[in-house]
Amino acid sequence: MTAPPFAQRPSKALLIGLVVSGILALLVLALMLISGGPAGFVVSALLAVAPLPVLLAAVLSLDRLEPEPKLHLAFAFAWGAGVAVVMAVGFTLLGQQLFVRAGYGAAVAEDVGTVLLAPVIEEALKGSALLLLLRRRHEIDGLTDGIVYASMAGLGFAAVENVGYYLLAFGEDGVSGAIQLFVLRGLIDPLGHPVYTSMIGLGVAYALTRRTPARFAAIPLGYLGAVFLHALWNGSATTGSLAWLGVAYLVIMAALVLLIVVTVVERRQLIGKMSVYLPGYRPTGLVTDQDVRMLSTLSARKAARRWARGVGLGRAMSDYQQAATELTMLHLRAERQGMDPGRFAVERDAYLGAMAHARRW
Q1: What GO biological process term is on the record, naming one (predicted)?
Q2: What is the 3-state secondary structure (H, E, C) of the chain?
Q3: What pTM was computed for the model?
């Protein structure tokens, strides 16, 4: 069986980045284990990992119509957990030392590091995962894709960072201290980092998928939005004021609602475009009116996969649905960004070939 066109061979740079990031994340965790001791590390790691399955499922559910390659998602997560964490700690400590040498006290330097340096540095490093994926720009063909990749980088960063925070709380107040902090970071505000960095994801995705003259301005604007949200939360936390924390939380939740609305609207637009573009392929015999209805809602797609599994065609149905979705996305990219007709024809025929290979009902 030939690989479908959407199963591209991973680049060496991507694989190297994934390995390096993973090694750095493991080194950071090993240092935490040595410095905090086995008991504290185990408690902290369990608390940091506990919400991850739910959070990952929530993020990935945003992109059910056109799932991103698993290796690209793993790279974004590992980049956030490894490279971004290591470099963020290093640059933030360096910046704080510069403030101390300039004559500011240690307390001022720490507050500056928390409220100013950390948001500026961390968001730049987490967001750089999306810039690195620009070489695979074909994978970012919608705003939802930018949100998903950014969220994965944010989740990776938060997972490792939380181990460190819980370990510090464990060292000061034992298990109860770690659990109290977990309530704040793991239950009340578990999506902080993903939401912040998703502002950058929106900017990068908009720049890649639109043809407006000022589209690339969306990247720095997204970065500023991420820094603002991050600094707002950190600054509110340093005040110790529940009122300020409440305001920051509401602003972040408003940003989260905005992200969800963007993904829902984009999903509806994609489904609507399927009804526009796919009927044009009826003469090929690869698309029928029943197929268009099946592809046009998530519930119908799920029901079709369930039926296909029952008759031994589960993988074929999944491949057909993904190829049909990618074909629709190809039309959307051509509509939004323009595309060389020869390249369009090559990609279109590849998706039609995948649909023909999969369609056996």
Answers
A1: proteolysis
A2: CCCCCCCCCCCHHHHHHHHHHHHHHHHHHHHHHHHHCHHHHHHHHHHHHCCHHHHHHHHHHCCCCCCCCHHHHHHHHHHHHHHHHHHHHHHHHHHHHHHHHCCCCHHHHHHHHHHHHHHHHHHHHHHHHHHHHHHHHHHCCCHHHHHHHHHHHHHHHHHHHHHHHHHHHHHHHHHHHHHHHHHHHHHHCCCHHHHHHHHHHHHHHHHHHCCCCCHHHHHHHHHHHHHHHHHHHHHHHHHCCHHHHHHHHHHHHHHHHHHHHHHHHHHHHHHHHHHHHHHHHHHHCCCCHHHHHHHCCHHHHHHHHHHHHHCCCHHHHHHHHHHHHHHHHHHHHHHHHCCCHHHHHHHHHHHHHHHHHHCCC
A3: 0.90
